[in-house]
Amino acid sequence: MPDSSLRCWNRRAMLAAAASVVACPALALAQSAAYPTRPITLIVPWPAGGQTDITMRILAELAGRSLGQPVVVDNRPGAAGTLVGPALRAAAPDGHVIGQLPLTLYRAPLQRKVPWDPLRDITPVIQVSGVTFGIVVPADSAFQSFADLLAWARERPGRLSVGSTGIGSTAHLAMEDVLSREGVSYIHVPYKGTADQMLAVASRTLMVGVNSTGYAPYVETGRLRLLAVFNAQRSKRWPEVPTLRELGHPEAVYTSPYGIGLPAGADPLVIRKLHDTFKAAMFDPLHLQEIARYDQEQAYLDTADYGRYVQGVTARERVLLARLGLGMGRPD
Q1: Which backbone phi and psi does 101 adopt, to 5 degrees?
Q2: pLDDT score at 218
Q3: Which of 114, 194, 242, 268 is most buried as measured by Cβ atoms within 10 A of its Cβ?
Q4: What is the C-alpha to C-alpha distance for residues 307 and 174, in angstroms, rounded to an integer?
Q5: What's the sign of the alpha-carbon dihedral 299, 301, 302, 306?
């Protein structure tokens, strides 16, 4: 190729490259403005039909109306709600795959080696709510109070069976925290979700259940008795039920706030659109009415504050898990 032709070709190539550099931000901006361009998948790491699944489906329906695309719930139960972590890590950061972020997601890497890091791989978008954890027993149980439960367990070491929503779940750590301080040994029985655990307690297969207020229908219909809750104050729904704090356990306050996030690296405009859409949805009367059924209230944090919260709670959980001997490096 003659030198003059080569120079001309090089000039054209450089001009084309420069044009593409200018065009790319404009193209990205246009794509962000058009978001979403297809249905959005919302990963809910709990079984279908449970408390969180039901409330998240309402949020998804409300958000979908505003976004102009359906938000489709994809249930990924198991592993104490942490299966959302690898799913989000593997997804494209274009906002078409999002997930419900339970506190267990941030706890898991402190307990075992996992091929994902929630602080690095996931962007928190908005905090939605927290839950009311409580201790339930069969309605005809001999345990009329939490003091009865402790007395029985002390006299019969290792015989009390207590269920939770999984090893390392907030329900598990909350009960382990209290019973370990009391010097009580017990049998921990992990379940995948709320429904199967509550049925086990109601049928007396399990002596004690620790869960969020998915137990409400069972308590209301007289199949279960609620002994105590892990709130800072008494529940508005169950004002006659004491808190663990009132019963002499000031450290036993657990509400496990959760929110919504997406894969790291998403466009800030997409993050903002999701935040604004889900904020409107979470304050919608339909959603507020539904979470009230489970003794929940909205616990809104915006993107920046939610990001700071998960950083801080990770540091606090590291200390708690070390004290309980459940963190990384614990003895076999």
Answers
A1: -110, 95
A2: 93
A3: 194
A4: 24
A5: negative
Residues 85 and 222 reside in one and the same domain: no
Q: What is the CATH number of the domain that holds 198?
A: 3.40.190.10
* Overall number of domains in the chain: 2
Task: Decide if 61 is inside a domain.
Answer: yes
For residues 294 and 122, the answer to whether their CB atoms sit within 8 Å is: no
The candidate with the shortest Cα–Cα distance to 232, out of 130, 94, 326, is 130
Query: Domain range holding 178?
Result: 134-229
Q: pLDDT by residue (tens digit) across 60-92?
A: 999 999 999 999 999 999 888 899 999 999 999
pTM: 0.75
Residue percentage of the chain with pLDDT more than 90: 70
Specify whether the CB–CB gap between 218 and 270 falls below 8 A: no
Which structure tokens are listed for 332?
């076999």
Strand segments, DSSP code E, in the chain are 40-44, 71-75, 97-101, 122-129, 134-138, 161-164, 187-190, 208-211, 224-229, 258-263, 298-301
